[in-house]
Design brief:
mainly alpha, Rossmann fold, 2 domains, 3-stranded parallel sheet, elongated
Length: 110
């Protein structure tokens, strides 16, 4: 799910297409720019089903309630690819950065 021009949605659509997987994008409004129009054309080119939910709140409700009930075996990717595993990855990266600073391999970040 994401705005109508979501870059993460486009990456998901491309990889689903390459892997022969179905892709459904739940989309909410954002200002329409040339970049947004281009991404929407590419969603279609890569075979993504686009469901326009208008607002972010309606998109979240549809994501967490309707889609998960209809497709219980589907793999759901949160907006921006954020999930528990990704969050742990960011935490681990912070610990790794701290270790490198402590070993004086890197300067302390500003």
């Amino acid at each position: 799910m994401g705005g109508i021009g979501t870059n993460h949605g486009l990456a998901t659509a491309i990889y689903c297409n390459r892997l022969g997987l179905d892709c459904t994008l739940l989309l909410f409004h954002q200002p329409v720019t040339d970049h947004v129009r281009q991404n929407m054309r590419l969603f279609a080119r890569y075979g993504a089903q686009m469901i326009y939910c208008k607002t972010i709140n309606r998109t979240v409700i549809r994501f967490f309630l309707l889609q998960r009930i209809r497709y219980p075996k589907a793999y759901f990717v949160f907006a921006g690819g954020s999930n528990e595993v990704g969050t742990v990855g960011f935490v681990n990266a912070a610990f790794e950065l701290k270790d490198q600073v402590d070993r004086e391999e890197l300067p302390s970040p500003a």
